[in-house]
Amino acid sequence: MFVSVILDPGAAESATALAQILTFYGYQKKQRSCWEHNSVSEERFTALKKDIDRVTDYYDKVRFYHYPVQGAMAITELKQKKWRKMLMKSSADDAQKNTQ
Asked: Quick one: average pLDDT of 70-85?
């Protein structure tokens, strides 16, 4: 799966730790706060989330855009030390299901 990571660290220490983790997992820095990887397994993604959770605090924000997840694009966000996930399916997929 393709994964893009957007970082909004609350402190310099968090920024350094997050960059080290993403580099360890093979992500490439594309812009100042954006990292990408083209081929990530679900197990590796789960391990990355756990490692990120260990080095972040309440003020850090991390957002993942990953595709495909259950045939859709997913956005997973760490905000205020809570993970949230949203699946975004296209309306074309819904239209195809309704016509079948």
From this structure: 94
